[in-house]
Amino acid sequence: MINLENISFDHCIKCTVCTAYCPVSRVTGRFPGPKLAGPDTERLRKKNPELLDKSLIYCSNCKRCEVACPSDVNIADIIQAARCSYLENSFRIRDFVMSRTDMVGGMTTCFSSLTNCLLKNRLIKKVLELFIGLTAKRELPDYNKRSFRQWYGTVKARQHRFKEKAVYFHGCYVNYNDQALGRDVIKLLNAMNRGVIITDEKCCGVPLIANGYLEKAKVNAKFNIDSLKSAADNNGMRILSTSSTCMFALKHEYPGVLGIDNTSISGRLDYIMSYINRLFEQDDIPVLEAMNITAVYHSPCHLERLGGVIDTIEALRRIPGLNLKNLHSECCGISGTYGFKKEYYQISQEIGRELFLAINKIKPDIVITDCETCRWQIEMNTPFETVHPVTLLARALKKV
Amino acid sequence: MKKFETRVIVIGGGATGTGILRDLSLRGIRCVLVEKDDLASGTTGRNHGLLHSGARYAVKDIISAKECIAENMILKKIARHCVENTGGLFVELPNDDNTYFEKLVTGCRDAGIDCNEIPLNRAMEIEPNLNAEVKRVLKVPDATIDPFRLASANTLDSMEHGAVVLTHTEVVSMIMDQGIVKGIRCFDRLGQEDIEIYGEFVVNAAGIWGQRICNKAGIQFPMHPSKGSMVIIDYRVNNVVVNRCRVPADGDIIVPGDTVSLIGTTSKMIPLEKIDEVTTDDDDIDVLLNGGEALIPNISKTRVLRVFGGVRPLVADTGDTRGRDISRGIVLTDHEERDGLKGFATITGGKLMTYRLMAEKTTDLVCEKLGINRKCETHIIPLPGSERETLSDKQTYKSIPETVVGSTRFRHGERAYRILKGDRKNYSLSCECEMVTSGEIEYAIENLQVKDLVDLRRRTRLGMGPCQGTLCAYRAAGIFFETGAADYENAAKMLIDFMEERWKGIRPVLWGDTLREAEFSYWIYQGLFGLGNLVKETKGRGEGVVVEEEY
Amino acid sequence: MKYDCIIIGGGISGLTCGIKCAKEGMSCAVITAGMSALHFSSGSIDLLGYYPDNTIVHTPADVLNSFAVNKPDHPYAKCGPDIVMEALNFLREELSEQELELCSNGNNNHFHVTPVGTLKPTFLSQKSVFNENINQAFKKNTTISIINFKGYRDFNSDIAAVNLKKHRLFTDCTITSNSIDLQDLQGAVKEAIELRSIDISRIFDKDENLHEIAERLKRAAGDSEFIGVPAVAGLENHKTVYEQLVDLTEKIVYEIPTLPPSIPGMRIDRALKSRFSGLGGVLITGDRIIGGTIVNDQVTRVYTKHHQQEGMTARNVVLASGSFFSGGMVAEIGNIKEPIFGLLVDYPKQREEWRSQLFFQKPAHPFLSFGVRTDENLNPNVQNGPLVKNLFCAGAVLAGYNPISEGSGGGVAAGTGYYAALQAKKRCDDIRKGNE
Question: Where are the strands (E) in C320-410, listed by range?
Fold first, then answer.
């Protein structure tokens, strides 16, 4: 029997609209555009899997093509799957290191001062570029001294005392690089009388998929689904994530790219701002103090694809005095690990240029975006502090 | 009026006609082929492209089965680039007559067809989309053959051996003198010119249209047109040929063909006057989709690209007129013997599978009549494009996308090297569904008897993909004129002809994404281009562009 | 999420409706699943181009009344001709707020040239397609040079030139064709083999290129007074680009539409979306409405792919989901349905009656006019169910008109979208009065 879920390419009308909105083919002719790399060649690959054009490795998986598509074709998923089969048999140390965000994070957190110092050293970065193709032009994120999970131990008992609780899938980034965001989540939800539970988790798998390690990604996916299910099942809790990309993977890429059934948790998954905004709309709002600052909001590609941008905007509008400016929706260019690679660095910077110009023109007090890699990209290319919307809400909480 | 002489005149540019032309020219005989439309535009281009192992005939018609397996082996060697050696399965479904399986195995053994039953899990591995409820599966050496490529390669080889090919040239009358056929009078539709061709022998290989040719020679030669309809699915849903293991009936085979799959076939007798405009009825489509659904569930929920029908030229002097029961054997008629008319023979019956054998028998007869003593070599010498054993040196085409290299090689075999050269701009895609480049279009126009966009489609698959030419037709029209192959005056008409030709196949399956695609296409070609405003009535190809006077 | 009005579909009709709602002070959201048909359009807005007998309408504004009287089921008859004209003026004004100027030939149609060199009647065109200078030049025997860009295959200047020359109005004109290369300029995609409309528009959008482009166009055009180019002269900065090109070339510059994606259509798309967001409207992309609940005669909730549980609520819902292409209607082997609410759709059962025998036959294929049947307020019925009073249908999802054979797509989209907004506003006001 033909699995109709796997043949969205069959719906492509060849209208070519996706190509007009692809940030990568805007800056390089090496990428033939989503239509050609996705549905067109997928159809050929059904005839012969070897008809695989290596140009598809230039896809950054930003999914703007899917947002533009009038035919509901999972263009980027198709490209990701094909890209995996292309990359499958080649072991490249950089991609290995970059895709193992949990393993590398775990190791580096142990020696964080050392690694932070080393990663800032130009010479070392040059060596990394030469040997493993990590671009020297990027600033790499700092690794925290203590992981979020280690810190969580100190507040764990209190979280369980709340009557209402939610499970938080913190992801690698919060755990190793930005535990402040994790703390803000707890601060905000606690202020809304909700406890935050964490459970065992592995990397969501997005970097593994992007680098062609499909089998490893499947193992992680299964682990996460089981673990989240058993944690959330207790009180029918919602499962939250502060990363639009992790959430996209849990919700869509597990079944769509990895072919893993996520129905046991899919009904409970919420990007955190959707969860918060839903509560806000039921007038379940903590007391927020006026901020009187200008903030610009950059909507990350994967959140656009999730249709979740509206929740972030609506929730932030509750902060009194906040002058929120919504930027014209553009890709920042980083797309996860994509912009960290030497061969894509230029492309990545070109893609983001319009966005950086727009932010610089406004000169905001702060930039808000939902995605961790967008934050790196914006902080590196503009002089402004860039935070997650949860952080802004946490800052607006009335000081007790 | 143009006049010229040759030795042998072949009428009909299908597989048989082009096969005879090749056989003649390989034997060093000067020859001319006349085709009223385009190569493979008749029955040849309108079948499911199955390279029979013979198994489908093994139970009922052992002679055909033996012919098939013999030709199957030959074509896999000489027409390597037209054949895809997929293999085939016969599958028995729960309610099928369970005695047929044994009969089939016995029949295959008797005919020398290598077959073996395979375990169900192995069958599902080979064909993951197969109905999971299959009872038994028999593996047979079926394969697929591309009839357009086959006719084109035969023509190309003939021309490289000195033959002359006139397409879009219709026979008007036979030139006869005292009971001897001396040649033909024909009309070149594109050049709008009369032509007289004199020769020592005329071969009528016009298939079902051969009856009309016989009439022009004053001979009655009754044929029974049997219509077969097929449905094309947007993409390859199966890897191997899937046959229903039962007495041959409607909708019992799914053949993968290049980028698509075809569900075949129905069989209906039609009156002779209907052979030029074959239409497919809604009930034929239902039968085919239901049949397909039994073999591969959900196939009817994928996009049906188009339907088409071909007319089998069955000859039955016995008076039996029930399509499937008439023998599909080869009928070679020497009209000197049958009707006392010298210098004229008709070859008909048979099937695409045995085209080479039909050509060999016909050419043997011609040689006998002309007193030439040369043996047939078409079973040994590979067709142009199929010369070498392997099709792999990817390295040669390093800068070109693999998809383009793969598709071009698939279509032109070894001749791809003549296309995949020159500067990179030659690789710019015109047809993005089937990966047809400007370079390939130029090559086809120069070498493969392409006169308009419809011909181009048969030679390159341009416009055969999901968008059915919406994006590529306009682009390709541009290349046509840039290369000087046609003048700009005809641009609009050529586009209209192409869209109308496409529409014939789309029209009966207008639902789902096919309808969405048609709407898109109409927005572009009528809404945006206003192309339909250029003609008051759509006449035949190349005829009658009338600009509206209003405004 | 609760709004005064949720609009399903972000094409001309959905966005016109959204902008009108927002201007009337209503809270509204437009949910759009993928890009609209504007991307495949000429970028001109048709009002009424052809009479039923296929002759050309020259004065659409004048004949609209009698047209509506003769076709009581036509969307024009439902909105009323005055509202249609008001809507087009509204659309024009809102677009000009976004620096996109639409021009008309008074109350008459004008012609625009197509990529195959035919002429089509239309009502509103962008300034680069119709303005007073162009109009004057077309009236005399002018010299025209149609210029394409190297590597761009979705427009062919030769085909356009040859056919245009054949036209009665142009037989005395000198029409030549030529091409220039822009690939060495700023913003050109590096290493590109094939160029698409969007790639060239980005080269035009770069300020620093304009002098050079103008210089090359001028050289290629020689003595011609008139330069025809494919419609790729800038997307984001089109207004400046066009004005500068006219100034720098000192010629009349004219844009001809191309194969998709249509840059003129994208200009309208961008302008309408910016306008809508600027007025405080919420634009939701990347999500699609998958269903709704109707209780008695009211839509109570709509659900999206990503908000399947809680859904969204609104006082009014406008269905501007487009035709088959956009998913507003779905055709199956034996039936046609409206997939979101299961509304009553007008169509013949026999598939044969869905289309014409020839592709280019006139009148155009019947399926183009299939759609949701509504009453005079644009309220539809559920299949075998009641009239839904807070649901309004607009644009291509409507039955009763054939956008292509009538040349009425743009007018119906804008007219019904605008009319739906007025209806929604009226309901909101009534509710408010009821509450007071």
Answer: 330-331, 336-337, 345-346, 371-372, 391-393
